[in-house]
Design goal:
Shape: globular
CATH architecture of the largest domain: Orthogonal Bundle
Strand order of the largest sheet: 1-3-2
Number of strands: 3
Helix content: 55-70%
Distance between the termini: 72 Å
Strand content: under 5%
Oligomer: single chain
CATH topology of the largest domain: Neurolysin, domain 3
Length: 508
């Protein structure tokens, strides 16, 4: 009898502690979502005069969140809940993610969190002015502040997590990833891509370039076409919207997903693919497990998988010949196009054209990894203190010349092009190429499981593909590590082989 009572008591202690943890993390998640909405507004609607107030708002939310995560009561609850092994795998995974969140939060003190939030907000707003003006010197002092504070946070988190400073930053975006894993994957790509790029360039010169149809392409018509194709993909406009920003992104919350793009009226092709890319992100958010809304385990599993979903939609599916057979008539109709330039064959050659370009977001999938490898090298050196920030423009330009054989003529086309470092996202860049590898691997597995997927895509029907992703990725949330989820979905850990096979099939 005493044993039964003891066991019951332990279970009751676990349930009580666990339920309180769920309530606390629900509040934390809601505050994080509020912060995300304010960031979206800052990028899309906020007038420049609102910057000072917005910094205060974001700082207050960040501090409140930090206080909730570092409350001494939280670790007491974690210890009590972890003393009993949950019989539910989702609860066990939720506890694991709660502990990881607590470790990250308690590693840095409140003053550092406040200072970092303010520095990042100030730097980002300055970058938005400096980028179009090609003025790196203007944003440099603010970026110095961000980097110094980031180094402090990285050192503190490294001590708490038992990892290197750079890995501690990486863990914020891709949990459990290591520099060894990234170095191994990137080394494989670095050995493969140079010769492959030359061969791809030779092959496409023989078949000829696609030609952009004659514009102009009014932004209103681009938006109308984009929204139509978003609906075909499965985007729910009752739970999301499309807007314009300087830098395309996907934000918001799972039941109110905010996509942005940017339009140029002399070329509709980039903005359209940008929208399809962000729709991939949105579908992932919309497909996260509803039963675990507001809990750490119910959130997307790191940015490698997040990028896999956007790149799977944009690169794997929507730049395929099958998809363009479907989309070409819609494009022709949207812009009242006439002639052979609107045929699927021309648009396919246009959308799969390989070129050494300066801008990462406009890069093709063959050269894109070089852009990421460069940024990975630079931010690793900056975090380690092996490079001074004032030397970034020159190092960037030298790296582009080494990796792609081109040199940016100005910083606007070089180190000022991405928002990430300026708003504090250090350790983020490797996830883009990890995502490209995961996208190819997942798409191959989906087609193996459902051979009808290419034919369905040729008719604009994504239900089979998205359904497979819902079951094998979206609905899993953070119930397992990226490696565990990839193994379960594809039968293999994350690797470069499927990505190389995909490039060979399309460009080789």
């Amino acid at each position: 009898m005493s044993c039964t009572k003891s066991g019951t008591a332990v279970k009751e202690i676990f349930l009580s502690a666990y339920e309180e943890l769920e309530a606390r993390f629900k509040r934390i998640a809601a505050l994080g979502e509020a912060s995300g909405m304010l960031h979206w507004d800052m990028s899309v609607l906020m007038p420049s005069g609102g910057a000072t107030a917005r910094i205060e708002q974001l700082s207050a939310l960040q501090l409140t969140t930090h206080e909730l995560k570092t409350d001494p009561r939280l670790v007491e609850l974690l210890d009590a809940a972890e003393a009993e092994t949950p019989d539910d795998t989702w609860r066990a995974a939720n506890l694991r993610e709660m502990r990881r969140s607590w470790l990250h939060a308690t590693a840095v003190d409140t003053d550092l969190v406040d200072a970092t939030t303010r520095a990042c907000s100030t730097c980002e707003m300055t970058w938005r002015e400096a980028r179009p003006e090609n003025d790196f010197a203007r944003v440099l002092p603010h970026l110095e502040d961000v980097l110094n504070l980031t180094r402090q946070a990285a050192a503190a988190k490294a001590a708490a997590l038992g990892r290197s400073p750079y890995e501690a930053l990486l863990d914020q975006y891709e949990p459990d990833a290591s520099t060894l894993q990234i170095d191994t994957l990137f080394a494989e790509l670095s050995a493969f891509l140079p010769d492959f790029l030359e061969n791809a360039l030779t092959r496409q010169s023989e078949r000829g370039a696609g030609e952009l149809p004659t514009g102009p392409f009014p932004a209103s018509k681009q938006r109308g076409l984009a929204e139509r194709l978003m609906r075909e993909l499965g985007f729910d406009f009752n739970a999301g919207r499309l807007d314009v920003s300087l830098h395309p992104f996907c934000g918001g919350v799972p039941d109110d997903v905010r996509i942005t793009t940017r339009y140029t009226e002399d070329d509709f092709t980039q903005s359209l693919m940008g929208v399809l890319h962000e729709t991939g992100h949105a579908l992932y958010e919309m497909g996260l497990p509803e039963d675990w809304r507001y809990q750490p385990v119910g959130q997307a599993r790191g940015m490698a998988l997040h990028e896999s979903q956007s790149l799977l939609i944009e690169m794997q599916a929507c730049r395929s010949r099958e998809y363009l057979e479907f989309a070409a008539p819609l494009m022709r109709e949207a812009f009242d196009g006439e002639g052979a330039l609107w045929d699927a064959d021309n648009l396919y050659r246009l959308y799969t054209w390989v070129d050494r370009s300066l801008i990462r977001v406009d890069a093709d999938e063959v050269t894109y990894p070089a852009h990421v490898i460069l940024r990975y090298r630079l931010e690793s050196a900056l975090i380690a203190g092996d490079m001074k920030l004032v030397d970034l423009p020159c190092a960037w330009n030298d790296g582009m010349e080494e990796l792609l054989g081109i040199r940016p003529p100005e910083d606007r086309l070089g180190c000022l092009q991405d928002i990430h470092w300026y708003d504090g996202a250090w350790g983020y860049f490797p996830t883009y190429t990890m995502g490209a590898m995961a996208a190819a691997q997942l798409f191959a597995a989906a087609k193996d499981a459902c051979p009808q997927i290419p034919e369905r895509i040729s008719k604009g029907d994504f239900s089979l593909l998205v359904g497979w992703m819902r079951k094998n990725v979206h609905n899993k949330g953070s119930s397992g590590s990226t490696e565990e989820l990839m193994q379960a979905a594809t039968g293999k850990p994350l690797g470069a082989e499927a990505f190389k096979d995909h490039l060979q099939a399309r460009y080789g």
